[in-house]
Amino acid sequence: QVRLVESGGGSVQAGGSLRLSCAAAGLNFRRYCMHWFRQAPGKEREGVAVIRNDGSTRYANSVKGRFTSSRDSDKSIVDLQMNTLKPEDTAIYYCAAAYFHCSLGGSTADFDYWGQGTQVTVSS
To answer: Strand 18-25's sheet: what is its strand order?
Structure first.
């Protein structure tokens, strides 16, 4: 059974940092592009980052320079290091796996698996 499990969410003051992790099980991790999305109340889902199986990355303009994604293929884990957090970053963050879709963002049909999400709250 395929599982994607996010962890690392929580509450932090503006300017602080959090590191999210997504642990994948039950799939050939090396074959998938791994994505991070977020969704805040009243807002559309936003593609935050994508990391390909070669380690190359793309980021949304809203987080570029502050967030960094990485992956450990041996451990089947993808991380999202979030620095200089802003209240606007408050959202539920999801990881997703796509076998064919490796560009930033995308629609639900583009993804094979989703995690359950983890809440990130940034206070001013």
So the answer is: 3-7, 18-25, 77-82, 67-72
